[in-house]
Amino acid sequence: LRVLGPDHPETLASQANLAGVYDSLGRMSESIAIYEVVRDIQIRDLGSENPETLRTLSNLAVALWRSKQLDKSLPLFEDVLKRREAALGRRHPDTLLTAGNLGVNYRDAGRLNEAIPLLEEAYKGSRRNPRLRVVIPELFDCYVRAGKSTEAITLANDAVAEGRKIFEPDSLELAGELVQGGDRLQKLEAWIESERMLREALAIRETLMADDWRTFNTSSMLGGCLTGLKKFDEAERLLIKGYEGMLSRAEQIPLEASERVPEAIKRLIKLYTDWQKPEQAAEWQKKLEQRTVPA
Prior knowledge:
By secondary structure, this protein is mostly helical. It contains 14 helices and no strands.
């Protein structure tokens, strides 16, 4: 800053990177403040249509959205979308990503009828540019909120089919795609399709990363699916294996995945409830309550 000056492009780039770091750490007010300084200088020196300015405006809009300031993020995304479409065209990945971000903002504002078309548009673009696949969970969530179960199931199946074109067969990347698809279908009680995906994912993970906590989480997820299909004996084996495997590898589980073990316990409670074994269900309920008691 002292060498190049506050308005030098490299200084602005460094400030934008710092804002991104603050964003990733959840220090949103600091991130927003820096993005606003960079934005003002870039608009003054480069103009509001410059790609660097638009990148900063987009990052600022994301930071505002993450800080739940929809009244500011939503109109900013609308503005960036217009500018990017004018500069790059509607089918450019940056334009479609902005459309997807705007769709997420509309969803969070309760405007599902406006959100869904934008997210669908971005998802269609993912067939040409895989980085746009980030909109898949957001579009799925919109379908679920709107009560569009058929569309949600179709999306979950199509996303896995597209993933098969991108990832190598029997790869960990494909396994991750299958787990996500199986999880989405399980939420919609599409048990048969979910079972197929989760079995394939579990086979891959048991071959390539047998000792990883995620493999045992997959086992628990498949057990939950089998509960839905009333295959209680196999469900019990997989659910207990999944729970015990994750519990013994608790140090591997990152903070953002800390709910996986409680979820495994809840699946066991549901198993024994549906299986009409109230004593076992009560035992697992106690385990769950013990985990939620403050230390």
